[in-house]
Every structure is written in structure tokens, then in C-alpha cells.
Amino acid sequence: MNDTVDKLVIFLAKRDGIDKLVKTFQYVSKLLHWHVEVTRPDIARRAKQWEVASGLSRKAFRTGRFLTGFNAIRRNPGSTSAFQLLSILANAGEMVYFFFDHFLWLSRIGVLDGTLARKMSFVSAFGESFGYIFFIIIDFLLIREGLKEERKIAEKSEDEKGRVEKIRGERVMRLMGVAANVADLVIGVAEIEPNPFCNHAVTLGISGLVSAWAGWYRNWAS
Question: Where would you find the membrane-spanning parts of this chain (predicted)?
Fold first, then answer.
């Protein structure tokens, strides 16, 4: 019990930990709104308010987050390694996403002209989707390298169980990352090119929860 409480405290002390918790609220309320929209309009209205409030609070909490991507790019100037190039492209997309998300948030709360919201949402979602494609590629490449290394260890020695367990643990984390990025990519596509599948409340709700809970797992375990 004490160990769980300690992990919860550490989880909620992280910016990403809080973000995943509030993201869970956001997409649970979206699914709730869809489920009771016709039968219980009063509850549906409250669920919608909860969803909007959660989404806006996440945007406020992510203020300055674009600097993470900028810092990652700054550390790899003129890189030639394939992984470094992919990392630059991924972080550039994420930087665009978080940077323009500031203006989207300000336009939605009325500080900037509300007509900017649609444009800022498109640019932010485009950067997000662009970055996630390269993050997914990186994770798959690293998973493949991990599998190769695991096979080499198995062929040479049976005594390096700790190393094999570490590789497998990293693989689980990367698979969680892929799940989160694919789910967020679906949400980004829904904003860039609205369509009946991606924009359906159930698709968005499930995608949001997959992203939130995969991120929750990664932050909790670390």
C-alpha cells in the first residue's frame, strides 16, 4: 500500500503525470457525453463542460513545453546519423505542436481573436501528426535492434538474464510509446482532415484513453 502511494505521489509530481490524469478526465467525459447525449441531456451538458475544462487546463499546463523539442534539436546540430535525423524531425513536429497550441488555447479562452482557433488548431495538429510519425518509426527501429541484441545474447550466453530483462522492459515501454503515438495520430488526423471515422466520439474517446493510459504506464513505471 505504501509503495503504491509513493508511486502515486511521484507520478503526480511530474508534469506528464498530471497531464495523463487530466487527459483521462477529458476523454472519459467525451465518451460519457456521447453515451447520454440523447437520454440524459443535463448530464451530457455537464460532461461536455468537464471535457472542455479538462482540455483547456491541459493546454495551460503545457505552457513552455515546446522548449523540450527545441532543446532536443539544439543538441543535434548538423547530425548525420539516421536516428539523429529522425529525432530532429520528430522533435521539430512536436515543437510546432506545442508552440501553436499556446495560441489555440489563448484564442479559445478569448484572449486572442476566436476566429484564429481553427487555423491554430490545424497548424498544431499538423505538427503533432508529423512528429508522431517519426517517433513511431524510431520506436519500431529501436524495438528491432533490441530483438537482434536479445537473439545475440541468447546465442552467446545464458547467464545474462539481467540484460535480457532490461531489453524486454525497454521493448514494453517502446510499445506503449507506439500505442500512445498512434492514438494521438488518429486525434491529429481528425483535426487536419475531418472524417466520419476519426471524428466519431467513440474513436476519439478510445484513442484519447489509449494515449493517456499508455503514457500513464510509462510514467508510473519510471
Answer: 82-100, 120-143
Q: Show me where the domains of the chain are located.
A: 2-221
Summarize pLDDT for 118-140 with one digit per residue, the tens: 999 999 999 999 999 999 999 99
Measure the CA–CA gap between 212 and 190, rounded to whole angstroms. Answer: 17
pLDDT in tens, 8-65: 888 888 888 899 999 999 999 999 999 999 999 999 999 999 999 999 999 998 898 8
**All cell numbers assigned to 33:** 457525453
Give, in degrees to the nearest 5, the angle at Cα 92 between 141 and 62. 105
